[in-house]
């Protein structure tokens, strides 16, 4: 008996999640406000989730080819938009074949190179915890993947990213002062602090 993964269904999931449009890779614009390494973390999480879940599949090599084609293509197009580079070729020229970036704390992040090794006994009884990233419609999963804590209260529970479009829109609230001090347009906040910032009348 040959155990295979459902390539067509997986491709349909990628279409539904917004990584494919008109049979071409398409940028996940909801992730555009994230940093370069946060964007890589998101795409890597989706790729890693599929690879882990279907590690037993005999057609794993084909699955990897499909995922790299669309996910990496989507990532490249998103980075092209983020840095206003104008083409995928310029993205590869600037960041290399694996879209590598070195952060200010000297950590290196790259688009992962998945293993082609097949383990036919490696069944998963539960869907990978990374798969929900596939349908993420906010920046909560970015904060979760980075293991961030709330900048205001230090909580690690339900941390999400608060961001503003322009620094000039900041006021004198405690959260805005933190953003001015760090010179950042986005900071991690727990759900309670985030809601208090946007809807103070409810708290």
Quick take:
The protein has 7 helices and 6 strands; from the N terminus they run αββαααββαβαβα.
Could you give the distance between the termini?
59 Å
Mean pLDDT: 79
Number of helices: 7
**Helical/strand content category:** mainly alpha
Outline the biggest β-sheet: 2 strands, antiparallel
Percent of residues in beta strands? 5-15%
Counted up, domains total 2
Which segments are poorly predicted (pLDDT under 50) over 5 or more consecutive residues?
Answer: none
Number of strands: 6
User: Helix proportion of residues, in percent?
Assistant: 40-55%
What is the chain-wise order of helices and strands?
A: HEEHHHEEHEHEH
Shape: globular
**Rg result:** 19 Å
Strand order of the largest sheet: 1-2
